[in-house]
Amino acid sequence: MDDLISVVIPSYNGEKYIKETIKSIQKQKFNHEIIVIDDISTDKTAEIAKKMGCRVIVNKEHKGQVAGKNTGIRESKGNYWLTIDQDDMLTDNALEILYNKMQENSSYKIVMAQLKDFCSSDTPEQKNFCKPEPFYGILTGSTLFKKEVFDIIGDFREDIITGDVIDLTNRLHKANIEIVKLPFISCDRRIHANNYGRTNQSDEYKDYAKILRERIKLQK
After folding, report:
1. Are 86 and 52 a contacting pair, CB within 8 Å?
2. For the chain, which terminus, N or C, has the lower number of CB atoms within 10 Å?
3. Three-class SS of residue 112?
4. Smallest Cα–Cα separation from 145: which of 39, 72, 204, 37?
5. What is the pLDDT of residues 126-152, one digit of tens each?
6. Do residues 77 and 147 lie in contact, with contact meaning Cβ atoms separated by under 8 Å?
7. Taking the model in full, what pTM does it have?
8. Which of 195, 196, 188 is nearest to 24 (CA)?
9. How many angstroms separate the Cα of 108 from the Cα of each of 103, 111, 178?
């Protein structure tokens, strides 16, 4: 389906916020499908997503967020692909704006918009962790891919937990695939006490060190 955007939500115990995430996608005027990859949640995440009409795939074993993205690539029906965290929200018309930018040039394969932090109302003490200005960041509701990109560079690496973004960026650079930036906020990024990146910060440092060591070996 050429004009279908597959929106993938890797999830784990996300019942607190995932309803708002799904609603923000369902409000989009562009043709889309929502695929929730549930990593054996112990709460009602999968049940909520099913009731809201999403396609839900529940893992048979705990695999992690990165593996969820790969499952989402394989299971998606659209030629365009976007992933969003279970606690973030797309802004109005985000999919349409990203898609229209992609159509401006046939060579465009990735379009990246901006994210804007907001402090979740239930954790006001996290306000200091919010970035004051919009910023660019690959994935997390900000980036639309032509799915063919993954045929070129391969899937996300599942042997790293939080360093998948820097690894992906490196592989895109090697393949000479340009990321086209769009000065538009496509995603409201929720800051709260259990953000994935913050709770896995020690793993992030290990992953970055691992990727750096690999790059140094290749340069020798």
Report:
1. no
2. C
3. strand
4. 72
5. 989 999 999 999 998 999 999 999 999
6. no
7. 0.87
8. 188
9. 8, 7, 7
